[in-house]
Specification:
Blueprint: H1 2-19, H2 44-71, H3 89-93, H4 109-143, H5 150-161
Helix pairs in contact: 1-2, 1-4, 2-4, 2-5, 4-5
């Protein structure tokens, strides 16, 4: 998730830079004509299209990855189901019967950490979505046509399916 968030923020920075330029401007300055099939320069409009699609793809992928990660069940392998060679050393030495085993706490440290990480990731993702909305709206003016803005749909999904701290 961290990598997706970083990619999203970097792509947002590129898109922010591009939408601030005139649509027909060349992205690169070419001092000599290009040879062969590369005689056309990349203009701002083409860059905006590419950056916007990339950002929307990253946002979609990040939201779905977070949702799938949260829906993944936690598997608890019973130590009695393992072969003696696969059991950890401390279990092999201290075969504790089920009757004498202490009850398992309802909220383990891993569960609490996972909830904390989830809240941070969801908040970071929501922040990226919020920062993306005005830039994506501004990209419509560069493109000259209104495209479908996925950020509101993804934001609603994030609010509906994943608890996002205020």
């Amino acid at each position: 998730m961290g990598t997706l968030l970083e990619l999203g923020n970097c792509t947002l920075d590129v898109l922010r830079d591009l939408v601030g330029r005139p649509a027909g401007q060349s992205i690169t300055s070419v001092t000599t004509p290009l040879s062969g099939t590369y005689n056309n320069t990349l203009d701002v409009r083409q860059g905006v299209v590419t950056a916007r699609r990339t950002l929307e793809g990253i946002l979609l992928y990040a939201v779905t990855q977070l949702a799938m990660w949260l829906s993944k069940p936690e598997y608890d392998i019973a130590t009695n189901d393992l072969d003696p060679e696969e059991q950890p050393m401390e279990i092999q030495r201290t075969e504790v019967s089920k009757e004498r085993r202490a009850p398992r706490p309802s909220s383990t440290l891993a569960d609490r950490m996972r909830r904390g990480m989830t809240g941070e990731m969801a908040a970071d993702l929501q922040s990226l979505l919020n920062k993306s909305k005005p830039i994506i709206a501004k990209s419509d003016t560069v493109l000259g046509k209104e495209e479908v803005d996925l950020t509101q749909v993804l934001s609603n999904f994030l609010h509906d399916r994943i608890v996002v701290p205020a």
